[in-house]
Amino acid sequence: MFEALFQTFEDPEGGIALTARLAAFREELLRRRLTGFVIPRADQQQNEYVAPSEERLAWLTGFTGSAGMAVVLLHEAAVFVDGRYTIQAARQVDDKAWTVASLIDPPPETWLSAHLKAGDRLGFDPWLHTSSAAEKLSAACAKAGAELVAVESHPLDAVWTERPLPPLGPVSIHAAEFAGEDEASKLARIVAEVVKLGADALVLSDSHAVAWTFNIRGADVSHTPLPLSYALVPKDGRPTIFIDGRKLSNAARDHLEQSADVREPDALAPSLTELAKAGATIALDNATAADALTRLIQDNGGTALRGADPVALLKAVKNETEIRGTRVAHRRDAVALAKFLAWIDREAPKGGLFEIDTVEALESFRRDTGALKDVSFPTIAGTGPNGAIVHYRVTRKSNRRIALGDVLLIDSGAQFEDGTTDVTRTIAIGEPTAEMRDRFTRVLRGHIAIAAAVFPDGTTGAQLDSFARQFLWQAGLDFEHGTGHGVGSYLSVHEGPARISKLGTVALQRGMILSNEPGYYKTNAFGIRIENLELVVARQIDGADKPMNGFEALTLAPIDRRLIDLAQLSDDELRWLNDYHARVRREVRPLLDDEATKVWLDAATAVLVR
To answer: How many CB atoms within 10 Å of residue 292?
Structure first.
């Protein structure tokens, strides 16, 4: 019915092919005198989405999630995933060859300490692990009397005979009308941070940081306009950007050369070596810098200053141009969402729709805006029990018919040049059960608690996280993911350093964009999530002792009224919901070009009364 441009629905490989791969990999380990190896789901810069050439974990294990790790020993092997992927991993990984274990609590190092033996040699690729991750592996090895061995080339690449070539996506210039700040201004702010750190130079190992600093975008990975690259910003002198020249048009090269020297990626190591030999202190990002960089600096007499990348915080606080752009992007997205939701309400009760139909339809409605550059992540469209898989991705094999009595969870987003979107709605197909209404309403109340929160400067995401969970907790329920993540400006839909979660230690600042997405998941039954993107803004309170902040909802899409148990809502919560729906109607209706969707929107946003 619809042609999807940016997503595929092919099933991951499995069965005999994967068994043969594991056997071949073990033979390669023996050839290299290794008794084990650690394979993270990572590239050299710890990107969430990686190029096909870096999908080693999926190629070996069949697990296709965006976070995970495998450890292969000669006689046993394990795949480690977090709570989002427990169900998915159990379905994708062969339990005869692999144990599925926790990535978080307990961490893989606990498993290693218990399974390694004295004298074992555990290999790892120092380009695919941060230094802090390598140190944890080393400690686990030491506890077992084993040795952690850094390899110069990845043994899996030796058996992956059809490994794709590295990407060469063309680099584009991110225009001033979208960026709102030129490279010279950004570099001056970064240099000031380098001086504060007491460093001689800063390595930008995160390609998002390079893209933001130099106002470029790329096409090297799926769903994020990322140009894989590095940069070196000294406190004195001209910065250098390390990027494959084949990605650069004359215009892109001229743009970069206005503010930096442009060199090939293989020039990074010699440049760092030269600085290190001169005794330089070089700042590295703890979260994205490869352990290989730390080793290179230290081995050549320099000091590796590991810490938070200062660019991450600068990038997270959006300027007025970016804020104005994201508001426009979300209104544009709201038109596509309204058309999609109206279409679902017309077509799904007829019984002929499958999950893939909804993914294709939503992408088509977004494509009709004429501004879609990509989806910001693969759409999650799960009906019935598939909705309970937090990061479900529909395939031809898993594609489920949408039936009366289901709830459909659809989590999706768009990449526009003026902003990145991410929205989840849970839709009743036919008559929901009392349990569905109860769970949905508890999730909704948590969503409202975040949306309506007022908090002083210095408040962290961890301090807000329980607001979203309180009504679920009252019924002995919870959800196994964070409440919210940061979002970039035509960059990553999952952006640090701030987040709303139990681990969110960075203070929320005005200008940051975060998701608000509590949920509930009943295994083998249904899933519920309600997600808006929120902009941190100032809140004026009469008589306040200190500056206060709150959230402005950027997402403009109706919340399914059929799933709400009105008896649970307080007067303030009901007022918030009616006010939100009135705003959706006010801002979106004039942008719609068809009467049927206008009629649907009027009904979907009608005032709720007890």
So the answer is: 19
pLDDT of residue 5: 72
Instruction: Please name which of 8, 7, 25 lies closest in space to residue 61, comparing C-alpha atoms.
Output: 25
Three-class secondary structure of residue 460 per DSSP: strand
The predicted structure's pLDDT at residue 133: 97
Beta strands in 44-173 (DSSP E): 69-73, 77-81, 99-102, 121-124, 147-150, 172-173
Residue 454: partners with Cβ closer than 8 Å, 6 or more residues away: 539, 541, 548, 549, 550
In three-state secondary structure terms, 68 is: coil
Torsion sign, CA atoms 49, 53, 54, 56: positive
Domains of the chain: 16-159 (3.40.350.10), 172-312 (3.40.350.10), 320-604 (3.90.230.10)
Tell me the DSSP string of 324-377: HHHHHHHHHHHHHHHHHHHHHHHHGGGT--BHHHHHHHHHHHHHTTS---EESS
Q: In Å, how far from its chain's centre is CA 61?
A: 22
Output the six-digit token pair for 442: 């508890």
Burial 530-541, CB ≥16 within 10 A → b, else e: bbbbbbbeebee
Q: What is the chain's Cα-based Rg?
A: 25
Residues in the chain: 610
Q: How far apart are CA 477 and CA 522, in angstroms?
A: 10
Q: ω before 40 within 30° of 0 (cis)?
A: no
CA-CA distance, 355 to 253, in Å (whole number)? 43
| Residue 311 backbone phi and psi in degrees, to 5 | -65, -30
- Grouped pLDDT means (10 residues each) for the chain, 610 residues: 72 74 97 98 94 96 93 96 87 92 93 96 98 97 97 97 96 98 98 98 98 98 97 97 98 98 98 98 97 98 98 98 98 98 97 97 97 97 96 93 98 98 98 98 98 98 98 97 97 97 97 98 97 98 94 98 98 98 98 97 97
Task: Round to whole Å and give the CA distance between 288 and 47.
Answer: 8
